[in-house]
């Protein structure tokens, strides 16, 4: 509000908003938006300003954000040096990993070129190196060998009647299968990114990923043994294929080609020594020594095969194989994304920038989809190359462009130099690069000391992946990891809290000896949320911790109430029979002119003497009733009959009406059922004397719960009702706002007041002490000063 003031100035008055006012205004705003027409809300959602359009475009193309700010003087030289170093690593790794994918080596070079250029435009990480990777190469190899085995391309040589494999046709079809699988995996990643499904990588925990990559290393080792020893084992696919291949290789060891084994051994030794020297002197070396490329160039003596010069034109992948590889493509999409986002977030945290999970999913998907049209197979970030790119001073993805240029030059001009490269050297490169994955086996000892469940996830992942191959092993390991989460939430830690003197803190009484129990109050907490899988266990733990077996107590009470109702019905039947006898006695008494006081036994005798044989059986059963009654006849027939309760008719002495207490007489003219219901005492566990307890309130601390379902809501409602029947009040503390909303939607507050909800446990304790702490029972009488030491 603006008001004028003297001197030409203005005074601005603003409303001071408290919490209630803010909540009221927000509710009005929500209601106004909810009640707005659908067309208006749709138009408002599609409205786009220049600034919002710019943000969306930059979000889709992160290169537009950092490239205009790129400083050649600051970033140019570090990115160039880093890119050359990574590009040199791309050459031997690309050709070596293509062997893991069961593809010709040149396609590994293609895979190192095209995806890196696509990621340059769409990626949000500045330090990861996109290209071939061990695990994905093995996964692609398992797919192409399953769909294009050697047995499908056999031909009989007419000259010497031998069976040969049509290698050219086989490799061509394998390239088509790998490209189709890569395109489908990329489309899956793009779709998941567009629907904001970037959190899918969180379902792959670190123990699962490390166990999976360790088992993938085992697959890589077995796959390279044939190149190391120079043997030709039978190709197997499906479950236990690794075991069958290993057995077959062992059986072929007597026929090892010794020159090939010698080259492999020397290459592995040189690579290991050189890499260790690189690690030891990495702070003194400006760039790592490209030992892999040096070994490859020095040992060009055997048959990798023809490496054509130039790039291949794009081709449309074979969509006919999509239905056969959809499961494998999904596994490739998830594993590749999980590895890339973990590396990207690690470098982003170290260098102080942010990586968008959904944008990374889209960027990786486009890299795979576009690369698939150029005969590339699935890519992700490589740990070794990313570390080199970061440690050699790389600042942006311009280093990725520089490495792609190195690969391009090699493909265009230097391809024929690698035609005589022995596959044994490439296998040695694979072996040495798996060293980091071999070190992950030390996780077993670490997890044994820290977490047995995570160790179990690691071992199950490793065993399932080794035995059932990479695709089925991944599914089995994810399923088992989710089961461990369900198991841990189903079996949480239940505890009773006590008060820490001098504070408002309430801690577990079993683990903290300084805390004290609040008299008359049980504070119960579960370490996990409450839902259908643990709702029943939550109730059982509450009964155990509170010492009140509410199920048995309520069952006992129900039985006693049933017996009470049975006695009421029996007493009502007796009352009706007595009323019938009274009518007969009134007719007999009306014939007499004087007042007569008689006992029931005498009246029964008179009725028997008058020939009322039909009443004999009823009279005997009436004598045996539990609550004996003596009747007194009024002076006139118009007055009401009264009877005295709780007196044995055989031993009682009758007096006048004035001798009876007011509470001991009941008018027979009133309804007999109402009379008996009012006179019979209501059954309660305290009056029955079977149980005694000193708890008057139970506080449920559900602060760990972040959601609640209908089963848990029903369980909480039953807890409130059941404990209320034994005069124990239930309260809820620490309830988060989403949980309160779910309780409201579930109808929890239809019969339970919101006054039972408290923000903190301390507030609930103070309320209980004020409400029930004094005056309910001397066994738990207390005051605030007694509990909290305050005045």
List the keywords.
disordered N terminus, three-stranded antiparallel β-sheet, transmembrane helix, 791 residues, single chain
Question: How are the elements arranged and paired?
Answer:
Layout: E1 2-4, E2 10-12, H1 19-35, H2 38-46, H3 50-60, H4 63-66, H5 72-100, H6 106-122, E3 130-131, H7 134-147, E4 154-157, E5 162-165, H8 167-194, H9 206-229, H10 241-251, H11 258-280, H12 291-298, H13 322-351, H14 357-373, E6 380-381, H15 383-391, H16 398-414, H17 423-433, H18 435-438, H19 443-450, H20 452-490, E7 494-499, E8 506-508, E9 521-526, H21 535-546, H22 550-589, H23 600-609, H24 616-623, E10 629-632, E11 642-645, E12 665-667, H25 672-679, H26 685-688, E13 697-701, H27 710-725, E14 729-733, H28 737-745, E15 757-758, H29 761-772, H30 784-788
Parallel strand pairs: 9-13, 13-14, 14-15
Antiparallel strand pairs: 1-2, 3-6, 4-5, 7-8, 7-9, 10-11, 11-12
Helix pairs in contact: 5-6, 5-7, 5-15, 5-16, 5-17, 6-14, 6-16, 7-8, 7-13, 8-13, 8-14, 9-10, 9-17, 9-20, 11-17, 13-14, 19-20, 22-25
In short:
The chain has 30 helices and 15 strands.
């Amino acid at each position: 509000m603006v008001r004028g003031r003297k001197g030409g100035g203005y005074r601005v008055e603003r409303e001071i908003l408290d919490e209630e006012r803010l909540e009221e205004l927000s509710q009005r705003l929500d209601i106004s938006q909810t009640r707005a027409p659908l067309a208006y809300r749709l138009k408002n959602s599609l409205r786009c300003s220049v600034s919002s359009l710019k943000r969306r475009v930059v979000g889709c193309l992160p290169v537009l954000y950092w490239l205009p700010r790129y400083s050649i003087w600051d970033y140019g030289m570090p990115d160039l040096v880093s890119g050359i170093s990574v590009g040199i690593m791309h050459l031997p790794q690309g050709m070596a990993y293509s062997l893991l994918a069961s593809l010709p080596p040149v396609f590994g070079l293609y895979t190192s070129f095209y995806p890196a250029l696509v990621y340059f435009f769409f990626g949000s990480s500045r330090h990861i190196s996109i290209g071939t990777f061990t695990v994905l190469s093995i996964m692609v190899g398992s797919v192409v060998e399953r769909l294009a085995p050697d047995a499908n391309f056999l031909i009989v040589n007419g000259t010497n009647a031998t069976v040969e494999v049509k290698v050219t046709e086989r490799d061509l079809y394998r390239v088509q299968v790998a490209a189709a699988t890569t395109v489908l995996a990329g489309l899956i990643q793009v779709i998941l990114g567009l629907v904001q499904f970037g959190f899918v990588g969180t379902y792959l925990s670190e123990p699962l990923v490390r166990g999976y990559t360790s088992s993938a290393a085992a697959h890589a080792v077995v796959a390279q043994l044939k190149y190391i020893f120079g043997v030709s084992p039978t190709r197997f696919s499906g479950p236990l294929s690794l075991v069958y291949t290993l057995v077959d290789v062992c059986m072929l060891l007597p026929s090892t080609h010794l020159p090939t084994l010698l080259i492999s051994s020397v290459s592995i030794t040189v690579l290991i020594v050189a890499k260790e020297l690189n690690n030891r002197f990495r702070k003194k070396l400006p760039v790592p020594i490209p030992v892999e490329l040096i070994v490859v160039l020095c040992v060009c003596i055997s048959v990798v095969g023809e490496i054509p010069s130039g790039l291949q034109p794009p081709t449309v992948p074979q969509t006919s194989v999509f239905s056969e590889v959809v499961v494998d493509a999904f596994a490739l999409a998830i594993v590749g994304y999980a590895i890339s986002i973990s590396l990207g977030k690690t470098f982003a945290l170290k260098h102080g920038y942010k990586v968008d999970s959904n944008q990374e999913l889209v960027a990786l998907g486009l890299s795979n989809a576009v690369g698939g049209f150029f005969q590339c197979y699935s890519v992700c970030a490589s740990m070794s190359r990313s570390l080199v790119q970061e440690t050699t001073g790389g600042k942006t993805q311009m280093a990725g462009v520089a490495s792609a240029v190195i690969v391009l030059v090699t493909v265009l001009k230097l391809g024929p130099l690698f035609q005589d490269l022995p596959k044994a050297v490439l296998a040695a490169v694979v072996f040495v690069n798996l060293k980091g994955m071999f070190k992950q086996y030390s996780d077993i000892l670490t997890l044994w000391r820290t977490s047995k469940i995570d160790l179990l996830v690691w071992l199950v992942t490793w065993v399932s992946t080794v035995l059932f191959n990479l695709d089925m092993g991944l599914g089995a390991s994810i399923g088992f990891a989710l089961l461990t989460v369900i198991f841990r939430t189903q079996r949480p830690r239940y505890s009773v809290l006590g008060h820490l003197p001098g504070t408002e803190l309430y801690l577990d009484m079993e683990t903290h000896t300084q805390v004290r129990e609040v008299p008359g109050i049980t504070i119960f907490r579960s370490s996990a949320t409450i839902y259908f899988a643990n709702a029943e266990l939550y109730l059982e733990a509450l009964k155990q911790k509170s010492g009140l077996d509410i199920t048995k107590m309520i069952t006992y009470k129900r039985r006693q109430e049933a017996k009470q109702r049975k006695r009421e019905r029996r007493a009502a039947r007796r009352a009706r029979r007595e009323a019938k006898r009274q009518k007969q006695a009134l007719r007999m008494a009306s014939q007499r002119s004087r007042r007569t006081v008689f006992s029931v036994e005498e009246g029964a005798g008179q009725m028997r003497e008058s020939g009322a044989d039909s009443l004999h059986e009823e009279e005997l059963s009436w004598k045996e009733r539990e609550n004996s009654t003596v009747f007194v006849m009024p002076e006139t027939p118009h007055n009401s009959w009264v009877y005295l309760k709780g007196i044995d008719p055989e031993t009682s002495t009758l007096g006048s009406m004035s001798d009876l207490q007011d509470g001991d007489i009941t008018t027979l003219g009133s309804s007999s059922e109402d009379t008996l219901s009012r006179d019979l005492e209501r059954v309660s566990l305290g009056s029955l004397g079977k149980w005694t307890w000193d708890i008057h309130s139970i506080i449920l601390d559900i602060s760990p719960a972040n959601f609640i379902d209908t089963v848990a809501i029903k369980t909480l409602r039953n807890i409130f009702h059941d404990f209320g029947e034994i005069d124990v009040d239930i309260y809820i503390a620490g309830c988060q706002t989403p949980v309160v909303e779910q309780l409201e939607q579930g109808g929890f507050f239809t019969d339970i007041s919101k006054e039972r909800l408290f923000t903190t446990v301390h507030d609930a304790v103070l309320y209980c002490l004020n409400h029930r702490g004094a005056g309910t029972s001397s066994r738990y009488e207390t005051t605030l000063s007694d509990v909290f030491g305050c005045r």
